[in-house]
Design a protein that fits this description.
Oligomer: single chain
CATH superfamily of the largest domain: Nonribosomal peptide synthetase, condensation domain
Helix content: 25-40%
Distance between the termini: 61 Å
Structural class: alpha+beta
Length: about 450
């Protein structure tokens, strides 16, 4: 039976988790009823549940769980769960009212509060159904050790109709090095020890450089928006917003920069509006955003391990002019890109990728509170295929990505583009940010104002 070592960054995500800070990312996908012209009856809830279970079971990655190993010390491996039962991961919940979208968004926040069971493959899916033959939703939860945004999209490719494997089929897997049989510890090939040691020394050298940048960027007395660094309650709330992609492109063409610069400026403006409505003072600097960056090669395979870095960006919420905010974001992001994702102070993931497993086993839980000294909020973009997607013939109408909350943070923003629209998922601590709908409205209002100025 094959297995693979957890990459250092994956192990860091695994060790970062606590009951109050689960480290799973997610997505809430909304599906419309199958069109009548499809020529086949629309699937009912039971049929969709069976389809989800069959396709999820066919994705080999979703059958693997984390198992501790003896060597390397503090390490762990992905190993196939010999007792895998897909019904422990795929569930159906019936929504009581008639508004599937609103009820699914409200319920998704509650479901995201619950940590995944660590003795099982770390993922879950919830089918949320309303009226028979009506729209429905699917909430997907994947542990961050299992997938980053790109890997999550690759896993989702095995679920949707266009590129899904037939029910019951097994996906092809690349050959892997032999790993532990169930119940046995994994020992590295002695012939690899010298090369492993040399790579580790080189990696530690790179870690020193990245670590110095991270230390220089640390703030002993972070002062951002108070609500973003409120004491955690363990509760979760989901807010959503939808933007027209052509509006974002029009702003970009008029003001310059990239579409991502525009979206970051929209987030900054929405935070400003939200803080003013709450009567909170606007900080002269910040809040500081962690902007994840994929280190995967364009067009390359998704791979099995997280491949991430990040930029740090001061969101200019104190600037009253929306176009000036956009210019400030563009300038800061150009500076980040010039430094590169491997050298900037936000390259926390690169630093984690260079540390030995033992450091993650004992050091990561102790250092988890340090995130607050570096950033106040996560703002991440998740790519999706450009083709139209469906499930059981039911077209995907919207999908809202969700990022996990680091310890010391109360809000994470995730964005994705699908069907000519930008869908925004806002995940917040439910007690720290009870007015998340206000912030979602600020996202739409800021976009409208930027568009008017650009025109």
């Amino acid at each position: 039976m094959s297995s693979e070592l957890l990459a250092p960054l994956d192990l860091a995500f695994w060790q970062l988790e606590s009951t109050g800070h689960p480290m799973h990312l997610g997505a809430l996908a909304l599906f419309a009823p199958a069109p009548a012209s499809a020529g086949a009856p629309a699937p009912d809830g039971d049929a969709v549940l069976e389809l989800l279970a069959a396709r999820a079971a066919a994705v080999r990655r979703l059958r693997m769980r984390v198992r501790d190993v003896l060597l390397p010390v503090g390490g762990a491996v992905w190993a196939v769960d010999q007792d895998f039962d897909v019904t422990r991961h795929v569930h159906r919940l019936r929504l009581p009212g008639g508004d599937v979208t609103a009820e699914a968004v409200a319920l998704a926040g509650e479901l995201m509060e619950r940590p995944l069971e660590r003795g099982l493959p770390p993922w879950e899916m919830f089918l949320l159904t309303g009226a028979p033959d009506g729209p429905f939703a699917v909430l997907v939860k994947l542990h961050h050790a299992l997938a980053d945004g790109m890997r999550a999209v690759a896993i989702g490719a095995g679920i949707f109709d266009e590129i899904a494997a037939p029910p019951g089929a097994r996906t092809a897997a690349r050959p892997r090095r032999p790993g532990p049989a169930p119940g046995r510890m994994w020992y590295p090939d002695p012939r690899r020890l010298i090369g492993f040691a040399r790579d580790r020394i080189d990696g530690l050298g790179r870690a020193v450089g990245v670590g110095a940048s991270v230390v220089r960027a640390s703030r002993l007395d972070p002062r951002g928006l108070p609500a973003l660094t409120a004491a955690p309650s363990g509760t979760r709330r989901l807010g959503t917003a939808v933007l027209d992609l052509e509006d974002v492109r029009h702003i970009r063409r008029a003001a310059g920069g990239t579409a991502n610069d525009v979206l970051l400026a929209i987030v900054a403006g929405a935070l400003r509006r939200w803080a003013e409505q709450r009567g909170e003072p606007l900080p002269a600097a910040g809040p500081r955003a962690l902007v994840p960056v994929s280190r995967r090669r364009p067009g390359g395979p998704p791979g099995s391990a997280n491949r991430l870095s990040a930029y740090l960006l001061e969101l200019p919420v104190a600037e009253p002019d929306p176009l000036a905010r956009l210019r400030a974001v563009r300038t800061a992001m150009d500076r980040n890109k010039a430094a590169g994702p491997l050298r900037g102070a936000g390259a926390l993931a690169v630093l984690a990728d260079q540390l030995p497993p033992l450091a993650h086993r004992f050091g990561t839980p102790l250092a988890s509170g340090a995130a607050r000294m570096l950033f106040d909020i996560v703002v991440t973009s998740v790519p999706l295929p450009r083709s139209a997607l469906s499930l059981g013939g039911c077209p995907l109408s919207a999908i809202y990505p969700m990022a996990p909350l680091a310890r010391g943070q109360a809000l994470a923003v995730a964005l994705t583009t699908y069907g000519g629209r930008v869908q925004v998922g806002l995940v917040a601590d439910g007690k720290a940010v009870p007015d998340l709908d206000r912030l979602a409205a600020g996202v739409r209002e800021e976009t409208a104002e930027l568009l008017a100025l650009a025109r």
